[in-house]
Amino acid sequence: MTASTASQAASALDLPGIRHAVDIALEEFLGRKADTAVDGHLPSEITELLHNFLFVGGKRLRPLLCVIGWYAAEGRGDLRPVIRAAASLEMFHAFALIHDDVMDRSATRRGQPTVHRQLAALHGDGRNHREGEHLGASAAVLVGDLALAWSDELLHTAGLSRDQLARVRPLVDSMRTEVMYGQYLDLLTTGLLTGNVVSALEVIRYKTAKYTVERPLHIGAALAGADATALAVCTAFALPLGEGFQLRDDLLGAFGKPETTGKSHSDDLREGKHTVLIALALRHADSDQHAALRALIGNPALTDDDAARIRGILTATGARDRVEHMIHTCLRQARHTLDTAPFPRAATDALRYIADAAATRTS
Amino acid sequence: MTASTASQAASALDLPGIRHAVDIALEEFLGRKADTAVDGHLPSEITELLHNFLFVGGKRLRPLLCVIGWYAAEGRGDLRPVIRAAASLEMFHAFALIHDDVMDRSATRRGQPTVHRQLAALHGDGRNHREGEHLGASAAVLVGDLALAWSDELLHTAGLSRDQLARVRPLVDSMRTEVMYGQYLDLLTTGLLTGNVVSALEVIRYKTAKYTVERPLHIGAALAGADATALAVCTAFALPLGEGFQLRDDLLGAFGKPETTGKSHSDDLREGKHTVLIALALRHADSDQHAALRALIGNPALTDDDAARIRGILTATGARDRVEHMIHTCLRQARHTLDTAPFPRAATDALRYIADAAATRTS
């Protein structure tokens, strides 16, 4: 995709083209980092791992929302700095996922071994299993740290004007703090099985709704100089969409097909993740179902049969249907906001497309 | 300390005053973060843990070097933004130490349980020991992530001019990348006992000499608008001082008094850290000593008697004396650079004071 002109905002947004441009920005940045590592006789595996992690999959949802936010606020002029700022969100997301996978002890992501598993395999030779695991987790924490530092570098070397940078800085700061607190809450509630739907929704708000949807839209809109009203409309669309998106993720985490989602459908259950789905099941379970859920969820030795039994209870208690209904309500609310949003048609259409994809996604 | 005027550069630098001003900047920043957490009904323990970690100890070496770098390059005008930029280095260092302690599985730091141990104690109730440990480590990784994000926020909200910010950004980027690669190298070589002194010195170069001394000086000097010559003189002073500083750290890690250093003097040995001290001992050990070192170093079940035996061998092989001699050479070289450095007298005196303190420190 070449640099945009104002006329583009009038026609449909080229989402695959935006995605491609974001990928090129990531590729160029990591290429320079790989060159620097070679020059300093530093290990090349870190940039290789990150490159592989970024390019084996990923929906680029946050960069897309960032660029759509720019169009929504009637951004004008050179799109390239906006694309690089959008790419910085994907690099940040790589950091978040790599650290999350260490914390959740996940074995696969995007159909591949997780970064910590790859590093344990790469450097575990001559160490016992537990030492190899610890080394892999430690090295993955560092790879994540680098992705976080580099996301920052991508942002402030994006070629944004000083005014643009000054406008987005507080939003990026908020985004980082919010998702880290969200993950912290997620961590503390994991393994503590309760029927508390409100606390599960609070984690979703910080960890997904604000982080994945609201802040990327805000950042893009702020780059275009959006006023407070435009940001408020972004929020009104983003929070229900983000909630629906995460509820779908929770359903896929339990009922998804691993060959489609690229991750296990037992990890969340084995780890004892405190999702709305689980909270609703506990709340509506009879005493036998309740006892079974408490005995099985969060058990590190969970078998496939155990996981299948949990799935049966999630369905039988109506929790699965209730979550489907919540997703439906969230997405209706998000779409409703779009009906009256003061955005150019192309931006509204793109947001509607993303909302539809979030509702029906299988990965 | 009040805002500096140019006349101060002529007299001796008030290092305790600078340190105090840095502490106030950290305190104010964390206070605002604590308020934000309260407003968002988020856990207050993260800011409390960071506050405690920062204020229970720490030499503030990096902030001091940053401010001295500013004076060395004849900085003029309001010192307050420089102090806040210096404070951001201390917040970054909190991130680095908290993550390092997780990776090294250290039990104590600054005379207190490490952050991951505190978090395991705080939230481990009702979980088995290993699960509690994993939760503590995961939560500490997140607290470190927040410290990293907040160090960035401290920097770009320091009140620096846009020109100052543009000058220091690439240096801060380099500093982060260098220390993360250094820690990565450290991690990969830990537990692999070899007599390779060169690779141990390479880790020191990235992890300490550049990170702890060179980059803080560069950042301070760049804030004052230093030219390439001034930065080169900073490097010529910084790299040997940093090497000497880390070699002293390695000696303290094996021979220091825990009640003075605030950390165990067996952790490095138990973890199998690949230090210059150990590499030299392996290189000069006879076959019995060599076998004993290989059997004991890196043994997770290392006893106090084992550690005492290793210390005996480190001394008997002459490794301890050789490291003392290397420290002496490094510091002589650093001091020699100061003799002809084109810096104001007050800055040179302060750097000389820091070099002397690094040579003789016991903690």
Automatic annotation (TrEMBL), chains A, B:
One Pfam family per UniProt: polyprenyl_synt
Gene Ontology BP annotations: isoprenoid biosynthetic process
Gene3D superfamilies: Farnesyl Diphosphate Synthase
Cross-referenced PROSITE patterns: POLYPRENYL_SYNTHASE_1, POLYPRENYL_SYNTHASE_2
Cofactor(s) required, per the database record: Mg(2+)
GO molecular function ontology, one term from the record: metal ion binding
Keywords: Magnesium, Metal-binding, Transferase
Domain of life: Bacteria
Family: Belongs to the FPP/GGPP synthase family.
PANTHER family: GERANYLGERANYL PYROPHOSPHATE SYNTHASE (PTHR12001), SHORT CHAIN ISOPRENYL DIPHOSPHATE SYNTHASE (PTHR12001:SF85)
Name assigned to this protein: Polyprenyl synthetase family protein
Source organism of the structure: Streptomyces boncukensis
